[in-house]
Amino acid sequence: MDMKRVKENDGTKQWKSIMSTDRISELPDAVALHILSFLPTIFVVRMSMVSKRWRHMWTLIHVLDFYDRRDLEYLRKPNNNRDRNKFFKLVTNCLKNPFQGTTITKFKLHVDFYGGHNRIDRWLRFPLQKGVKELDISVSPTTSIYSTLSHDLLCLTTLTALKLGGLHLKIDSPPTFLVSLPSLLVLEFVNVVTYDQTLNNLLLGCPCLEKLKLNCFGLQQPQVVSSSLKSLEFFQLGAVQTVKVEAKNLHSFVYYGYSGSCNINLTGCALIRNLKFTKAWLLTDHWFEQLVPQLSHLESLTLHDCYGVYVKITNQQLKEIYIKDSGWRFDLLEAIINTPNLVSFRYNGGSSLHKISINAPGLASFRYASKSISLISMNATNLLNVDIVLRGGLEKKTFDNKWYNSLIVFLSELNGTKKMTIFSGYEKAIIIPNELRATCPPPLPDVKHLMVTTVRLFRKLMIRKSMLWAAPSLETLSIV
Q1: In the prediction, which pLDDT does 96 show?
Q2: Cis (ω within 30 of 0) for the bond into 175?
Q3: 87 within some domain
Q4: How far is CA 255 from CA 84, 215, 263, 343, in A?
Q5: Which long-range contacts (CB under 8 A, 24 or more apart) does 249-257 make?
Q6: Measured CA angle at 443 (ends 377, 395), to 5 deg
Q7: Strand, helix or coil at 474?
Q8: Do 194 and 170 form a contact (C-beta atoms < 8 A)?
Q9: How far apart are CA 161 and CA 163, in angstroms?
Q10: Of residues 344, 401, 410, the one with CA closest to residue 376
């Protein structure tokens, strides 16, 4: 078989064998172009050097994708300036190509070290000329100075998706131009410097916007007003005081709070189905308790590292609740949940949640993962599956009668299930002493199927005896 060797000029200095009669060359042009559209542009350009057929093929692709960290390995080399300049030259030369007759649907440019604002401005003229539909620009400034986005891009009427990172965006007030993005469906800002009035003017020019992600510096009292918006992700950075959202068709709201407290007004979002708060200082008053019942379409609620002492969740339509504690200022001591249509409840945390009260007759799945055992009160007559994880640091714990009594009470509240899985980081934690077995009733008389797993299995017989006492009606018992 004929073989020829081609040396890659990407900094790896590795040789690879490439068959001179490869399968992809036999494909029709349309199929080959579709495959090439998923590759980084630098690789497609290199392929043009392999055969005559590929020489001009790269100029027909519909997607241009440049990313310096991926395309070159200059960051690992002592003399990285030369490789950096190679990347700059590659992008510049590619964008000089007229791409006549070719529609560029997506233009992606991610650069860490761009060497000045003028170069970025020149590169961004290309999507303006070609009427790009999806634009993804991310710049990592080497100083606190951010490159300013050209206002011309905010009038690119063909855009359906705009993702910006590391840029500065400001629209003067009163505006000197009108934003015109009539086709835009997705707008994402990551590490972008912008302002309240700029955001207002921007949203006014996006009448069809459905998905918005804001991870910005410079916002103080932003207002998100949009009748078409369906999904909003908001990252609190800097000195944000109040976030007001008026989006009557909003289905999903996700909030990440990393820099202190913030007032959130969602009164104009009655159709929210998915609500998620991460690292939010929201549970210190009655705001959250009053919000949830008002969301009559709410189906999924997630609280991840939310600061507060007490939370009460009351909602008629809620189907899923997930509470997670990863040790970040999480002081939630008690959770009271009154949700008749709840299907799934998950708790994943440390040892701070002391009490859980759940009134959910329709609950089917319950998962509890923690270093300790909470006092639980459960009304769930249709429980099908229970998953209990007792993990992390249990080997240092003193397993006394208090521990085992808490475990027995905890399990007894989950007796309604037919199937249960228990994982313990330490065998002793689930081997209930004989004296307690003699005085306490079995906590799981109705459970039919039980699986027990441990990190190290040395006392299988003792675990078996303990579980057969706890669940005397078992039909299947698996210990692994």
Answers
A1: 81
A2: no
A3: yes
A4: 37, 10, 11, 24
A5: 254/278, 255/280, 256/280, 257/281, 257/282
A6: 85
A7: coil
A8: yes
A9: 7
A10: 410
| Closest C-alpha among 249, 257, 297, 298 to residue 277 | 257
**Interacting residues of 152 by C-beta distance below 8 A, sequence separation 6+:** 128
What is 327-381 written as a DSSP string? SSS----EEEEE-TT--EEEEE--S---EEEEE-TT--EEEEEESS--EEEEE-T
Beta bridge partners of 112: none
Confirm if 274 and 251 have CB atoms less than 8 A apart.
yes
According to the model, what pLDDT value does residue 131 have? 86
Do residues 249 and 271 touch, judged by C-beta distance below 8 A?
yes
pLDDT digits (tens, 9 = 90+) for 158-168: 999 999 998 88
Q: Judge whether 183 and 160 are in contact, CB under 8 Å.
A: yes
Q: Which of 114, 138, 110 is nearest to 215 (CA)?
A: 138
- Asked if 378 contacts 413 with a C-beta cutoff of 8 angstroms, the reply is yes
Q: What is the largest CA-CA distance in the chain?
A: 86
Give the range with max mean pLDDT: 30-39, 344-353, 462-471. 462-471
Residue 44 belongs to what domain range?
1-102
Query: Could you tell me the CATH number of the domain that includes residue 35?
Result: 1.20.1280
CA–CA separation, 226 and 212 (whole Å): 10
Would you say residue 310 lies in a domain? Answer: no
Q: How many residues does the chain have?
A: 480
Rounded CA separation 22/399 (Å): 66
160 burial level (CB within 10 Å; 0-12, 13-18, 19+): middle
Residue 42 lies in a domain: yes
Residue matched to tokens 């909602």 = 315
The larger pLDDT score, comparing residue 159 to residue 140, is at: 159
- Non-local CB neighbours of 85 within 8 Å, separated by 6+ positions: none
pLDDT one-digit tens code per residue, 195-207: 999 999 999 999 9
pTM surpassing 0.70?
A: yes
- The Cα–Cα gap between 100 and 419 comes to 64
Number of domains in the chain: 1
**How many Cα atoms sit within 13 Å of 257 on the Cβ side?**
26
Residue 18 has pLDDT above 50, yes or no: no
3-class SS shares of the chain: helix, strand, coil, % to 5: 25, 30, 45
Give the span between the Cα atoms of 177 and 240, in whole angstroms.
Answer: 27
Residue 7 lies in a domain: yes
Nearest residue to 128 (alpha-carbon basis) of 147, 96, 150, 97: 150
* 355 CB-near residues (< 8 Å, 6+ apart): 333, 334, 335, 374, 375, 376, 377
What tokens were used for 248? Answer: 């009557």
DSSP 380-443: -TT--EEEEEE-SSGGGS---HHHHHHHHHHHHTTTT-SEEEEEESSGGGG---HHHHHHS--S
